[in-house]
Structure formats: C-alpha cells, structure tokens
Design a protein that fits this description.
The protein has about 400 residues and is of the alpha+beta class. The protein contains ten helices and 19 strands. Helix content is about 30%, strand content about 25%.
C-alpha cells in the first residue's frame, strides 16, 4: 500500500463526494461500486463483484476483505439511493455533491454514502496507526432501497456457500438522532403488509337494493383491526402497531356504488408477535367484520421482515465504550424505526447499526454536517481499535 493512498483515503470527504456523484438510484449502479472498489484495492482489500438478477434487474454487489485469519469484522451498507423526486425543488442538484455552510448536500449524503466513505477512512487511519490482526471486510449492496432480493441476502448465501464467516458486523445506516453516534440500533421490529379486497355488487346509488356496497364492510373490518392494541411492547421494543396506508375503489363516479374496494395496511411488530399469528388474527377479524354485510373478502400478505434483537453483551458494551470515548456520551440503544439489511445479517453474526443523523434521509436537500462525517469516522476507527484489541473475543 502506498503511503499517499493511505493518507488520501484517511479523509472521508473526497470519497463521499465521488460516491454521491454516482446517480445510483435502485437498481442502477452508475459506477458507484467501481469508485468504492478502487479505494478499497488501494488499501489492500481483495474485492469480489457479485452481480445478481433473480429479481429481474441486474444488481451490483461488492464483498471486499483484507486478511485471511479471524476474527472477521464486517462493515455493511448500500450504495443505492432513493429517487430524488422533483430536482427543481433541491437547493443544489442532488447528484452534484455540493458543500455549503459546513454541510454536504446530495442524495445519499446521509443514507448512506458518507458512512461508507467514513468506514474506508477509518481503515486507512487504523493502518496509519499500525494496522490490526485479523480481517476486515465490507459487504456493500446496490439493492437495499429496492426489493432486497438480489443484495445482502444473496451475498450472505454466497459467503456461507464458500465457508466464509463474519464474526461481528456494523451496518452504517443513518441511525442517529441529533449527532453521529448518539444512537445505536441493536434490533428492529418486523414488518407485515396486508392487502384486502372486498367484493360487492355494482349498481346505481338511487337503487341500493339492486347493489351491494362493499365499503361499509371494509370499514367494519378496518375498524376492528385498528381498534385492537396488539401488545404493550417490551423492554427492548415499542408496542406493535397496525396502520392503514390506503383505501381505494378506483371509482370516479358519484352516482355508482362500486363493485369492490381495496385496502392496504402494514404492521410493525415486536418479538411478542409472529407473522403467522398476526395473519390468522387478521383473517378471523375480516370474516367477522364482513359477515353482517353479506360480503366476502380476499387477503394477501407480504412478510417484509422478522423482528430481531442483538442483546446486551460484550459486543454492545464495546460499541458503547468506543462511542463514548469519541463523543463523551454513552449512546442510546434503540429498536425503533424501519428495517435495514441488518435483518438478514443477524442470522449470521451479532450486528448493530451505527451511522449519521437520519433527519434528512429520503428528503429533498438531503444533507449531513461535515463535522458529523468526521465524528462517525473517528467512531468507526475507535470501534476497530477496541475490537481488534480483544481479538473479537466478546461474551
């Protein structure tokens, strides 16, 4: 490794700029993996590109590892981003990577290209201080913001197939609330989406006896589902909640009783619930709600994720100590929010999410403080130092 490469990559900002300038809206890579691969090769990583297209679109993934012995500490993340929306509403073009007023603006600045750059910089700084024993790896996907069928889950299967083990992992999602490192996500709730269609008989509103309106039946079902408090939560998880996200008949007329009505709802659930149990409850409530109206409904479910928790342990204690050493404050451990690829990784090793503040992710004018990029870099470096000082031997 050239000293000049190491010193250049120890600053996360140039790599963050290069990554943001890649218009890598899922499923398009737009050169983002090549940018990252060049940086990692300069630090001595062996890089393997892993494209998959089972879901219908070619997804670029990258697994990079330096070292062959254990323990293997992994950093996981994604280079794909959500669409920018109406670009005329942005203060600065979303893929220009503009720096202004101590902030870095651009799609992916918070979620999560800056964090990827920070991890690379942390490795470069670790090398400058003498390196580490064991292995460091990066598992980077281009399919986190999309269906997530050809990304992390496929790379993990590839690793398992070749007998390669990850011992501990950090996902660089924007988990913080106010400043980098103030919150660690050590678990997430599960996600279940339900699609209900209630069928009636179309007719003229002036002759309701000749029709059968499906809407009152749908309203009865949704009332039953929404009125139940699923649980009170646990010490680690907030209560499970069901939210109706859309109700639609597709009916443009004011004098026609529609033939059917469709609704979609999503449940975020903790470890007190299961997908199977929730689906059975929903089916039962649907029958009870529709029966008085003489209506029938059809249900379809999509299981998005199962809840998981990385319990308090030597690993979480190490993370807390490393973060406090940089910020002066212990982080909060939380399981709130949406899902991430940690839902796949937890089946293979202990995992936690630590990243930048997520206040602007997916928004117009997505941005992050330059000071926070430096702080998360220092946090990642501190975690690596603490981790390899223990040789990964964590209770």
């Amino acid at each position: 490794m050239e000293t000049q490469d190491r010193d250049r990559l120890a600053d996360p900002l140039p790599l963050a700029l290069d990554l943001i300038r890649c218009r890598s809206v899922t499923p398009h890579d737009a050169g983002a993996m090549a940018v990252l691969e060049r940086a990692l090769k300069a630090l001595g990583f062996t890089c393997t590109r892993l494209p998959f297209d089972e879901g219908g679109a070619r997804i670029e993934n990258l697994y990079a590892r330096r070292g062959t012995s254990g323990p293997n500490f992994c950093f996981a993340g994604h280079t794909d981003v959500v669409p920018p929306g109406d670009e005329s509403l942005w203060q600065y073009p979303p893929f220009e990577a503009r720096i202004a007023d101590g902030m870095l603006f651009g799609r992916g600045a918070a979620d999560m290209k800056s964090a990827i750059a920070a991890f690379v910089a942390a490795v470069a700084r670790l090398d400058r201080a003498g390196g580490s024993q064991g292995s460091i790896s990066l598992l980077i996907t281009g399919d986190e913001e999309g269906p997530a069928v050809d990304g992390t889950v496929r790379v993990l299967a590839w690793l398992e197939g070749r007998g390669e083990r990850i011992d501990h992992c950090i996902v660089g999602e924007p988990t913080s609330v106010f400043s980098a490192g103030d919150t660690v996500k050590n678990g997430r709730r599960g996600s279940l989406t339900g699609y209900l269609t209630v069928t009636g008989v179309q007719g003229h509103v002036g002759y309701p006896e000749r029709a059968r309106n499906p809407i009152p039946g749908m309203a009865a079902v949704l009332t039953r589902l929404s009125s139940r408090r699923l649980d009170e939560g646990t010490e680690a998880f907030q209560p499970s909640n069901l939210e109706v996200t859309t109700v639609d008949t597709g009916n443009p007329a004011t004098n026609v009783i529609p033939a059917e009505v469709r609704a979609t709802f999503n449940i975020r659930f903790n470890t007190q619930q299961t997908s199977e149990g929730l689906e059975a409850w929903i089916r039962e409530e649907t029958e009870r709600g529709l029966e008085p109206h003489g209506l029938k409904g059809t249900l379809r479910f999509v299981r998005g994720a199962q809840p998981f928790l990385t319990p308090k342990s030597g690993f979480t204690a190490l993370l807390s100590e490393a973060i406090e050493g940089v910020t002066g404050s212990k982080p909060e451990f939380s399981t709130t929010g949406g899902t991430s690829d940690a839902r796949f990784i937890h089946r293979h090793c202990p995992v936690a999410e630590i990243g930048l503040a997520g206040t602007t992710m997916h928004k117009t004018d997505e941005c992050v403080r330059l000071a926070d990029i430096e702080q998360i870099t220092r946090i990642y470096e501190a975690i690596l130092r603490h981790y390899f000082s223990t040789q990964g031997r964590l209770a």
